[in-house]
Amino acid sequence: VNVADPFRRLARIKPDVPAVIRADHSSVTYAALDDMIDAAARVLLGLGIRAGDIVGLAMVGPDEFRGIVMAFALARIGATSANASLAPEHLDFLIQERNVPVPAGVRSAAMDAVWSAMAITRANTDPVRDHPGGEAIFRIYGSSGTTGTPKHVAISHATQIRRVEIQFLQCTGAPEIRIAGMGTSHAWGVLCILRTLWVGGTFVLSNPANGLDAIQRHGVTSLVICGMQTEYCVDTTTRRALALGYPVTLVADGHTTVGNDALFQRLCDALGRPEWIDDPRFVSVPARNEHHVE
Asked: Full-prediction pTM beyond 0.85?
């Protein structure tokens, strides 16, 4: 199964239902979204991108809709999308927003040019043949995890689909509206996109700076909060939401943090190793990363 397969079905059975609301508040129906994915796939094939190629997506700005379309267009033809932080020697192609530098030796195309070319290919109404997906790599995510050291993880179509099923589809319920300030650059963002769209819901892309406006505009009555940096982002968001009168559910296992000096000192105390606090091997995050085996 290909992760883009459900968009075909929903374009047939719910063509006029809003699939995505962009950061500029414009609406994209399921029929239009599937049409855009096909149009983008034709442009990508015209650029010489083929199944198995790894294509970096260098997206900037608050509206990640174009990146979402490109990621699923690449999936549809069997190519792999990747965070632009992936080392250039691993990239076969790069699609970049304006002002994003292109590494030497990497074939590339500007997003504006690709998006403009889609208007021409949309005149072709023949569906693009879907790649079977399966164990082919869908996405390469960039992550520093809790180490502070950049690393990348390749996820197949089959694994991505299992993640959605295990973590989200077991709680399907009615089609929903989900507001998010993230896109395909985050593994969690892709899970949210697929979870929402596969059940015929509406995914609302919101500039994080205008998040409250989006929440109020769509009549949100309660919030479920999770994310990175428990003691900073999660704490501040929770306090702000409570101050505004929203009931809040903080997911017990849905937030985490990265190492910092204060937490390391508490860890040393808990382990009964206070001498580690001033040990030159462990005095900073980079030092601890270098000597983590010790």
From this structure: no
